[in-house]
Amino acid sequence: MRHPQHLLHAFSTFDLGGITARFVRLVDRFGDRFRHTVMAMDGHYGALESIGNRSLVQVLDLPVRKGWTLANVPLFTRTLRNLEPVRVISYNWASIEWAFAAGHRKLPHVHVEEGFGAEEVERRLLRRSMTRLVALRFSRAHLVTVSSTMREIALKEWGVPEDRCSVIPNGVDPDGYGYRPARVGPSKYARSDDEVVIGTVAKLRGEKRIDRLIEAVALVGETCRVSLVIVGDGPESSALATRAARLGLDASCLFLGMRRNLHEILPELDIFALSSDTEQMPIAILEAMAAGLPIAATDVGDVRVMLPAASTELIVKRNATELARAVARLAQDKDLRMRIGLENRAHVEKYYRETTMLEQWERVYAGNVR
Predict the structure, then answer these.
(1) Of the candidates 40, 41, 13, 23, which has an alpha carbon nearest to the alpha carbon of residue 364?
(2) Do 174-351 and 5-170+354-366 fall under one CATH topology?
(3) Domain 5-170+354-366 belongs to what architecture?
(4) Count of H helices and E strands in the chain?
(5) With left for phi above 0 and alpha for psi between -120 and 50, is residue 47 left, alpha or beta?
(6) Residues of the chain predicted below pLDDT 70
(7) For the segment 299-326, what is each residue's pLDDT rounded down to a tens digit?
(8) Does domain 174-351 bear CATH number 3.40.50.300?
């Protein structure tokens, strides 16, 4: 009888998001081939309820000391000695201390980097870059990221060797997002038959710049009948609602909060918009593509690479005026929305299928990335 390989996963948070949603899918896919110990540096474990077989996942709740970056290394090292996983997988900056612990125990280590917070939008913080450089060399980590943009940063700024740096693009199941080639009748979120519904899906944090999207929609609303649907929650929620009201959008801006039924929500939209200051390979873009939506987006991370050529002029600089221009172009031309939406759907089916992504992550879990 084959025993499951024991993996330790160190997350910055285990609340539901892109990284944890993928982890849940992987747990369900691999079944008892692996067993998983998960540790959240912030102590939040909201994604646990999404796991089908909880017996495969053990929670490791440790008293994390915040502040000095290396404060937790002795505790993490002792933990690895006691648990004896075959592999350590850490996710993003907040878990970088696990690299030192894995290096001390000489355990195989994979570090995953998928994006930056608001504090590193314009440039990476030198202290963090130097810590990553030292930590990843010490543990001889294999670095995995979702974007070519992040890979270039890892090679040039963190000194990760090319043969220890992989890109695994995100993927989705194209049939899981309620694709309708042509929506019949008005959206349930529209107030009239001729109203165009713009939507976004994001954690409501500063770097997502939903305030920029609200301002852009207000500008578009001067010439078109539009409404805005925002899916997600976060610390900016109250301030964003106030911002929408001040711009006169209180009746046409709907905050849905966190939702799991995107397959029902996305088909009710006419346009998907991404307004972030920083992304790498946003899965929300892939989900919108799978739903056959046209996309207007800020030019961040790999967004320009992800979308087909027809969307090039809809990828804009990070300001509300430019985003409004792209949204307005789509809002005013139903045929254009239809044509680009169809191209987006075909593109995600061809290049970003979930099955391909899961096969690549299976090799990571099994230790076949070197």
Answers:
(1) 23
(2) yes
(3) 3-Layer(aba) Sandwich (3.40)
(4) 13, 13
(5) alpha
(6) 1-2, 68-69, 121, 180-185, 370
(7) 999 999 999 999 999 999 999 999 999 9
(8) no
Which pLDDT score, from 0 to 100, does residue 195 have? 94
pLDDT of residue 181: 63
**DSSP label at 252?**
T
3-state secondary structure of 178: coil
pLDDT at 182: 59
Long-range pairs of 261-265 with CB within 8 A, sequence gap ≥ 24: 262/177, 262/178, 262/201, 262/231, 262/287, 262/291, 263/176, 263/177, 263/178, 264/178, 265/199, 265/229, 265/231
Give me the residue spans of the domains in the chain. Answer: 5-170+354-366, 174-351
Q: Which amino acid is at 207?
A: E
| Predicted local confidence at residue 3, as pLDDT | 82
In this structure, what token pair is assigned to residue 310? 């027809």
Residue 360, CA atoms < 13 Å, CB-side half-sphere? 16
